[in-house]
Amino acid sequence: xxxxxxxxxxxxxxxxxxxxxxxxxxxxxxxxxxxxxxxxxxxxxxxxxxxxxxxxxxxxxxxxxxxxxxxxxxxxxxxxxxxxxxxxxxxxxxxxxxxxxxxxxxxxxxxxxxxxxxxxxxxxxxxxxxxxxxxxxxxxxxxxxxxxxxxxxxxxxxxxxxxxxxxxxxxxxxxxxxxxxxxxxxxxxxxxxxxxxxxxxxxxxxxxxxxxxxxxxxxxxxxxxxxxxxxxxxxxxxxxxxxxxxxxxxxxxxxxxxxxxxxxxxxxxxxxxxxxxxxxxxxxxxxxxxxxxxxxxxxxxxxxxxxxxxxxxxxxxxxxxxxxxxxxxxxxxxxxxxxxxxxxxxxxxxxxxxxxxxxxxxxxxxxxxxxxxxxxxxxxxxxxxxxxxxxxxxxxxxxxxxxxxxxxxxxxxxxxxxxxxxxxxxxxxxxxxxxxxxxxxxxxxxxxxxxxxxxxxxxxxxxxxxxxxxxxxxxxxxxxxxxxxxxxxxxxxxxxxxxxxxxxxxxxxxxxxxxxxxxxxxxxxxxxxxxxxxxxxxxxxxxxxxxxxxxxxxxxxxxxxxxxxxxxxxxxxxxxxxxxxxxxxxxxxxxxxxxxxxxxxxxxxxxxxxxxxxxxxxxxxxxxxxxxxxxxxxxxxxxxxxxxxxxxxxxxxxxxxxxxxxxxxxxxxxx
Length: 671
Hints:
Layout: E1 2-8, E2 18-23, E3 32-38, E4 43-53, E5 64-65, E6 68-74, H1 77-90, H2 94-101, H3 132-146, E7 151-157, H4 163-176, E8 180-184, H5 191-202, E9 207-210, H6 216-227, E10 233-236, E11 248-254, H7 271-281, E12 285-290, H8 295-302, E13 307-311, E14 322-327, H9 328-333, H10 342-353, E15 357-361, E16 370-373, E17 390-392, E18 397-399, E19 406-408, E20 421-424, H11 428-438, E21 444-447, H12 457-466, E22 472-475, E23 488-493, H13 507-519, E24 530-535, H14 541-547, H15 551-565, E25 572-580, H16 583-601, E26 609-620, E27 623-632, H17 637-652, E28 660-665
Parallel strand pairs: 2-5, 7-12, 7-13, 8-10, 8-11, 9-10, 11-12, 14-24, 15-22, 15-23, 21-22, 23-24
Antiparallel strand pairs: 1-2, 1-4, 3-4, 3-6, 16-20, 17-18, 18-19, 25-27, 25-28, 26-27
């Protein structure tokens, strides 16, 4: 007879506790998935064992008995410990963390194993000859694997410096020492490229894939292969950090600066933080690599919290591409109202004639950014969110990029009846149309969330470009992340200012990273390549630093600004959003929450609270939103977390509450 404390699979703050049960099955252990009778009706619910004891410390009346233990699915002790840590770290429910570690889907009724990427045949290659810089990097890392000593490394390598080869050499050493590895990429679009290279190096039998584009059945079967120990390498996007591997030796976070590593859904975890936590429990290492490391990672390296390794040269010794800034204000003065500057057009023409490929980057999808009446000024806005619709010409629809609602374009203005309802601004769909018009003899393709919606479409678009069938590839940030094409002679950044104009203290950092990363797609073969940056704000330090490929100057400038205003990496930011169908209710509740925080934290802490105020996106999906930010300086996180968690629980367990509360720690979106 054993006694267990379990987490009930129920998405409610009311049941976010440990419940004690009796268990007759001696095989039950920490992490076991069980079925239990729950609540007054004794409905059978799934649950997960977090604690096991042979006796109770005190008598508990009315204790119930576990109905069944599920032998196929269970969590490791390390996974359970990480779930407990996530609850404290991100103020989520136990079950929110548990679901990160457990598979969706079920086993196939036909008994078939659903294997994604089974048709992929990688090019069989052995290890490349390492450059001196790569050799030094590997030599610095390997001893920690042999000694099974936890350490975090930041690999700061210029684009095309061969970071992936360093990763693969380290993973090879882990496997040789009987360990396993997790390889994380920031976008699903990069998964196929990584899988292709890894299968060529390590074979397909020992590699599993985890990401959200797999079907639930595929994810379930891959999860089971991993748990059974049939694989020793897992490749995937951020959710793969929770892969049920044992004996982890290394977790690699490629393009560690990317915002996609921060979950925007509950639990709102930071992938790098989770990776470091898991690696520490396994005495494993973490490799975080980027050509443009985040300011937080650079700061940690500077203060000695993590080790920094620098790769200054490209693997093939090809010089970094030449980068030029084009002042679009001058283009306008000279009468050029086109999407493309004269220089960009000429360079595109030259590269295409010389049989080189072109990438055009614009981080805004759709055809036009808003639809307005030229007579009265009316702007079409989403009824649920209150933000401007984006015009999508291919569907002749107005689309909200936040809630997904769509409307047909009316023939006349609903306010004044005018027929002068026009669309303004530029998105990737418009750039694609314009490019096809001026280069009709060349093949043009587009990669953004619209064209990537169907399963397999990302692979089709990228494979066509890789094989040279596509001459010009137009895309959002999907084309700026880690793609490796040897024949790209030119990268054109159509508008470098878009990311500067978002209400986010990281706007300059994101701009610097996007430009540098997009520029890094050029000249990865034998040709050095060119990059042209079009901007209406060409003097901004993030743009000039990116054009000069000067990370150090950007880091110093941005760090000084962040320190002055007390933002990360010099503090943690707690974002609290109160939302309600009634705007006044949301506003009043946010004021009440702010007052409660100050009363519990102390009056002196009130100076670190910003707001409450209407969120930039004041209304989303019919809910009005008010937000506040709290700067949490070192030494205060435990106190702030306890106070805010108590506030959250009080609101979420109040059956009469008319507001919802959302908490995000160090968010990447302030909309």
